[in-house]
Amino acid sequence: MKLRALVEKDAPLMLEWMHDKNVTRYLSKPFGSNTLSDCINFISENASPSADADFLNLAIASDEGEYMGTVSLKNIDRLNAYAEFAIVVRPKAMGKGFSWYGMREIIKIGFEKYGLKHIYWCVDVPNLRAVSFYNKHKFSLAKNVPSAVKDHYRGQDDLLWYEADEKDFIEKCLFGCRIISIRTVPTEGKGCLHYVESLKDVPFDIKRIYYITDVPKNVERGSHAHRTLKQLLFCPYGNIRIILNNGSEETSVDLDKPGKGLIITSLIWRNMIWTVPGSVLCVAASDYYDEKDYIRSYSAFRNYLKGKQ
Ligand code: T46
Fold first, then answer.
1. Which member of 1, 82, 198, 244 has the lowest number of beta carbons within 10 Å of its beta carbon?
2. Positions of the chain with pLDDT under 50
3. Which residues of 79-107 are buried (b: 16+ CB within 10 A; e: fewer)?
4. What is the pLDDT at residue 168?
5. Of ligand 1's atoms, which has the minimum distance to the CA of residue 233?
6. Contact 249, 174 (CB under 8 A)
């Protein structure tokens, strides 16, 4: 699964759900009269939004690139750090994890790239399928929806409002792992100094530091999980993509600035991709090196998780 820009060849598949009453029944806008050229226009207007655009519409796609639905951040308010979320998937994609994947990834973009703190959305109370989806993923009902957001739904009663709060959601998306800000001390005209302290910034005692250098571009390392080890990963120079997998779902975090750290808990399968050559991966670990703590086969990892249940 992936998120990607909308492309023209998505138009017929977009039209397919627009003309399916089972999909559109609870949507706030009527789509039934839309035509193929409406879809093509929507795609061309949304394919590459400007840096200050107040919307982001992306395709949820299969690994092969087939369009499965659209996921959106709407009315992005950078000043007040909030936006609205919307999603629609084709019937073919329902019940296969595409909705959860698309939702997770776009909300993560909202928090990480747009600096949002809250993302809101609403569903019609009778839309039981959506309500049970959000309940299953343990979203809380929104307590204080800004009136500017509610105004977009004026005249619609019977709405349940949900909210994704940055801290809770990032943890939920990252399978209990966590992004931390590494303390940064700027020195006028002389760069920055970054530091972390054991048991203060990092939730474990640091027993080992190691770092990985000289990795060519696009090389992938990792492919293992740890039984008990916890680690802080950070990239003081370059950009390294960390792919996390909890045995059934996958997500990624870009370590793209020196002040960003990722705490990986135990029992998470990880891969690291060097997207910029020369990038340096630094790791602070909760224990000494012990090869017996590694699980280096994905099927053994899944079996280990099953045994733990
Ligand atoms: C991890 C990711 C982020 C040692 O001798 N001492 C050490 O402290 C470490 C970490 C590794 N090694 C040996 C074990 C292997 O023979 O160095 C060799 C390369 O290790 P590995 O293939 O596990 O490297 P990566 O980059 O795949 O994974 C490393 C860490 O091993 C792992 O704990 O989470 O970085």
1. 198
2. none
3. eebbbbbbbbbbeebbeeebbbbbbbbbb
4. 81
5. 3
6. no
Q: Are 130 and 123 in contact (CB under 8 A)?
A: yes
Which pLDDT does position 166 carry in this prediction? Answer: 84
Buried b or exposed e, range 118-127, using 16+ CB within 10 angstroms: bbbbbbbeeb
Q: Rg (Cα) of the chain, in Å, rounded? A: 21
Among candidate residues 19, 137, 194, 224, the one labeled active-site is 224
User: Locate tokens 């909705």: which residue?
Assistant: 99
Mean model confidence pLDDT for the chain: 93
Position in ligand 1 atom list of the atom nearest CA 294: 33
Residues 11-58 pLDDT 10s: 999 999 999 998 888 887 788 899 999 999 999 998 888 888 999 999
By DSSP bridging, strand 118-124 and strand 82-89 are parallel
Is 212 near ligand 1, meaning CB less than 6 Å away?
yes
Express each pLDDT in 225-238 by its tens digit: 999 999 999 999 99
- Contact (Cβ atoms closer than 8 angstroms) between residue 263 and residue 299: no
Buried b (16+ CB within 10 A) or exposed e, 139-172: beebeebeeebeeeeeeeeebebbbbebeebbeb
CA nearest neighbour of 107 among 151, 61, 60, 72: 72
Find out whether 251 and 105 touch, Cβ atoms under 8 Å: yes
Where is 151: in which H helix or E strand?
A: helix 147-151
pLDDT above 70 as % of the chain: 100
Going along the chain, which residue ranges are E strands? Answer: 2-5, 56-61, 67-77, 82-89, 118-124, 140-141, 159-165, 178-181, 183-186, 192-195, 208-212, 220-226, 231-237, 240-245, 250-255, 260-264, 269-274, 280-285, 294-295
pLDDT at 204: 96
